[in-house]
From TrEMBL, chain B:
Signal peptide: 1-25
Solute-binding protein family domain mapped to chain residues: 77-427
Keywords of this entry: Signal
Main location: periplasm
The UniProt record lists the keyword Nucleus: no
Subcellular location: Periplasm
Keyword Ribosomal protein: no
GO molecular-function terms, A-Z: peptide transmembrane transporter activity
Family: Belongs to the bacterial solute-binding protein 5 family.
Organism of this sequence: Elioraea tepida
Source taxon at top rank: Bacteria
Protein's name in the database: ABC transporter substrate-binding protein
Pfam families linked to this entry: SBP_bac_5
Length: 317, 538
């Protein structure tokens, strides 16, 4: 197991390098200029050139990439081109905010998806199944952006029950798990939860339906096992695959949603990325994507380990 | 009993009357900005003029300032931290500024000539220990001829320009005075100047009417009134700035009571905002939303008759209706009545018949239709609603027999192309470019476009316009130091520019902002900026 773990950690290195390189190249291939984050368009060329030199943006691209890589290896993500602040100071706050939102969305979407999927899978062809499937399809299909705005119009503008934006009455820096703050989390978390809810519903429904049709369930029924006992067996058999899907979904949620975070002005990684893309803020863009990619890698590893623990038939050499 | 109540009421009224400061100092104003982050707070804000509006002017002062207290006139300059200024009659590159005595920074240190020299060096002297490259970009470009400062005495300072330049006082509205002493204190605790400026940005010290009370990067900045302010003290107790880049989110925040004021509400939301009792504030802004022509050989817009025809083919009133009234039809870079308007003989209006006649005279018609290619963006700061507006103009021009093709590119890329000029490959053969601009200052309004020396890569003469007559008028405006005579020279330049149809002038923004009825005392000047000392919450 230790060898497996080490190998997986080593796999992360080329992934990190590739992610960094692709992101770096994409930003440089795209039209526009990172220098626009620092100087207005009406700046004279002499000044633009001087500032390009100050920031090392006049050097050949491989050297720029090498310098960045060297710094990252030492844990230094550099300074934002746009604000001059250390990238890590903004990124760490954004990650915590996105994590908060992702976990809240997962806590809404995953149990609901499991419940609807289990009901639909065990009651196939009934009205409950059809309703669950309809909800799942709607959840996967509905545009986040639109749903977020509808929820804001309904619950913030019309009813005045919940805040429309922000991460707390005083911002996210003094976050507490009290109603004053949690109420800011509800609408973005609900909006973000509908896609994982739909995907988990469909996955669990398929798994439950398939397991219920297997012979060992017939045997268990024939032996007179109670309904609760059979449900337990179904759950145990469905868990590894369901966890794999939920793990991937959590990865997507932690990547932040540019649209949801923009609609709700939620100061997470999605909003940070959005701003960095428009400003061509290369250090912020590269660091954010790299950290999110590493999150995804780590999460996949955790899911694999969890699957092994739940199902000894899955061997990790 | 009644007598006692009357006496109590009279006493209360007397108390209130005796304490006008207490009676007028009111409330917290929460403002939803369009910016995605708090503009930089170290004294030279980024995020365009929204930065100057919200983290420049409220926290800091410049030597020369805009008088933002009235809505009914083009915004003039007024003394700020300098009481008066004049150019040296023997050396027109040397200006003498007399400073306001008794002004203190928020940290309690004195504002004086040393502070001015220090603040000029922070962006212009690369050898200064506090030189900050990050502040150069947003500052040096707005005061292109300033070179250095020299202390004469504690309250007098000389500023030097690279060439005689009467525009300098306008430029200096962009140089905000930060506290040297406060920065030195930050520097003592920081490993380098860069880190010291970051620490200064989190805890800034200027001389402005507000002081920073709280700063959460990317989320909020809170200012409290500076009770020791040298000028008119602010009426509001506290200002909270919230970055809300999405227009619908800003509107929802206002309607749900999370903020009291939003910048640039979504135009579609204006009727709903009004129906819910919100106030929509607008005024003509020194902003131009034009098509800037390419003048090089082969461009149809090198022909003045074509440029005039295009100007006459646009139904600006129709465009205004499309935008729900949120624009002013542009008939020049400045509006009639402005000191720089002049007396152009070419009257920009909607006159399709005359437009067709001019096109025919230039050789275009049904047998030889004119096709124009215009580079535009899908969005962008100051770009208003670029897609529907450009499509509307496209339809107008179709009616006079002109086919318009758009090359739609991302805003940052369009900005970059603007600096490269229409001869560059990035223009992809475009005959015009649609980049809006601020027109508060003569350099940004006219000189950088109509002076042949400003052709790329120097500045924004994207179309490579070159005419010795205009070069002479630009030089005259720059070297005329009496303000009235300088304005007259600028008026002649503007009138000549309109007569030559050097732009396709289309719209001026009106800088819409929506406010709760609780916000009182607000004045929307004809400016990109506002005076935050005036509004309060009732």
């Amino acid at each position: 197991m230790l060898t497996y773990l080490l190998r997986r950690v080593l796999y992360a290195v080329p992934i990190a390098l590739s992610v960094g390189l692709v992101c770096f190249l994409l930003v440089h291939i795209a039209p526009g200029d990172p220098i626009n984050a620092i100087v207005p368009a009406d700046a004279p060329q002499e000044l633009v050139d001087q500032i390009r030199r100050d920031y090392g943006l006049d050097r050949p691209l491989p050297i720029q990439f090498g310098i960045w890589l060297g710094r990252v290896a030492l844990g230094d993500f550099g300074l934002s081109l746009a604000t001059g602040r250390p990238v890590w100071s903004d990124l760490s706050v954004a990650i915590v905010n996105t994590l908060r939102l992702a976990v809240a969305a997962a806590m809404i979407g995953f149990p609901l998806g499991c419940l609807l999927g289990a009901l639909a899978g065990s009651l196939q062809g009934t009205a409950i199944d059809k309703i669950a499937v309809a909800l799942a399809v709607t959840g996967v299909s509905v545009p986040h952006y639109w749903l977020g705005m509808v929820l804001v119009v309904l619950f913030s503008v019309t009813l005045g029950w919940l805040p429309a934006m922000g991460a707390g009455p005083g911002g996210s820096s003094d976050w507490a798990w009290d109603w004053e703050h949690v109420q800011h989390l509800i609408l973005p978390a609900v909006t973000l939860s509908v896609i994982p809810m739909g995907i988990v519903t469909r996955t669990v429904r398929g798994l439950v339906a398939e397991i219920l049709n297997q012979e060992f369930i017939l045997t268990l029924r024939g032996k007179g096992l109670s309904r609760g006992g059979i449900v337990l067996h179904v759950m145990k058999n469905a868990a590894p695959n369901a966890i794999a899907v939920m793990g991937l979904q959590l990865g997507y949620l932690m990547g932040g949603s540019i649209l949801v975070e923009t609609v709700f002005s939620w100061p997470g990684t999605g909003l940070l990325l959005n701003n960095a893309i428009f400003q061509r803020d290369l250090p912020v863009l590269q660091a954010t994507i790299l950290v999110l990619a590493m999150f995804f890698v780590a999460l996949n590893l955790i899911v694999d380990l969890a699957q092994t623990a739940l199902d000894p038939r899955i061997r990790r050499a | 009993m009644i007598t006692r109540s009357l006496l109590a009421a009279a006493s209360l009224a007397a108390l209130l009357a005796a304490a006008p400061g207490a009676a007028t100092a009111q409330g917290t104003i929460r403002i939803g900005m369009t910016a995605a982050d708090i503009p930089l707070t170290h004294g030279q804000p980024d995020q365009g003029f929204e930065g100057n509006r919200f983290t420049g002017i409220p926290l800091y002062n410049a030597l020369v300032e805009w008088d933002l207290t009235r809505a009914d006139r083009p915004t003039p300059l007024r003394p700020g931290l300098a009481l008066s200024w004049e150019v040296d009659p023997n050396d027109k590159t040397r200006w003498v500024f007399r400073l306001r005595p008794g002004v203190k920074f928020h940290d309690g240190s004195d504002f004086n000539a040393d502070a001015v020299v220090w603040n000029v060096r922070k962006v212009l002297d690369r050898d200064a220990p506090h030189f900050d490259p990050r502040q150069v970009g947003v500052t040096a470009t707005r005061m292109p001829t300033l070179r250095r400062a020299e202390k004469i005495d504690d309250l007098t300072v000389a500023l030097f320009t690279s060439e005689p330049d009467s525009i300098l006082p306008f430029n200096l509205t962009n140089l905000f005075m930060a506290s040297p002493k406060h920065w030195e204190a930050k520097r003592a605790a920081a490993p380098n100047a860069e880190a010291a400026w970051n620490a200064f940005a989190a805890d800034p010290s200027g001389t402005g009417p507000f002081r920073m009370a709280r700063f959460v990067p990317r989320e909020r900045a809170e200012f409290v009134r500076n009770d020791a302010y040298w000028g008119q003290k602010a009426k509001a107790d506290r200002i909270v700035l919230l970055p809300i880049p999405e227009a619908n989110a800003r509107t929802a925040a206002l309607l749900s009571g999370q903020v009291d004021w939003i910048e640039a509400p979504a135009p579609d939301a204006v009727p709903q905002l009004r129906a819910r009792g919100m106030r929509i504030e607008t005024n003509t802004q020194p902003h131009v939303w034009p098509w800037q022509p390419c003048f090089v050989d082969g461009s149809p817009l090198a022909d003045v008759r074509v440029r005039k025809a295009i100007n006459l083919g646009i139904d600006r009133e129709g465009l205004k209706t499309l935008l729900g009234g949120m624009m002013v039809p542009a008939v020049g870079t400045v509006q009639p009545g402005h000191p720089w308007w002049g007396n152009p003989s070419f009257q920009i209006r909607h006159d399709p018949a005359e437009a067709r006649r001019l096109l025919a005279e230039a050789g275009y018609g049904p047998q030889r239709p004119l096709t124009l290619k215009v580079q535009i963006s899908a969005s962008g700061s100051g770009q208003m609603q670029p897609l529907p507006m450009n499509e509307f103009v496209q339809q107008n021009l179709k009616a006079i027999g002109v086919n318009v093709e758009f090359d739609v590119i991302e805003w940052n890329a369009l900005f970059t192309n603007w600096r490269r000029g229409c001869r560059d490959a990035s223009a992809r053969g475009a005959h015009a470019i649609n980049v809006s601009f601020a027109a508060m200052d003569p350099f940004f309004a006219m000189l950088r476009f109509w002076d042949s020396k400003m052709a790329p890569p120097v500045s924004n003469n994207w179309g490579f316009f070159s005419d010795p007559r205009f070069d002479a008028m630009v030089a005259e405006a720059r070297q005329t130091f009496d303000p009235a005579a300088r304005d007259a020279a600028l008026a002649r330049l503007h009138a000549a520019g309109v007569d030559e149809a050097l732009f396709i002038w289309i719209a001026h923004d009106v800088s819409p902002r929506a406010m709760s009825p609780r916000v009182r005392g607000f004045v929307q000047p004809q400016s990109w900026f506002v005076d935050l000392t005036l509004p309060f919450i009732q």
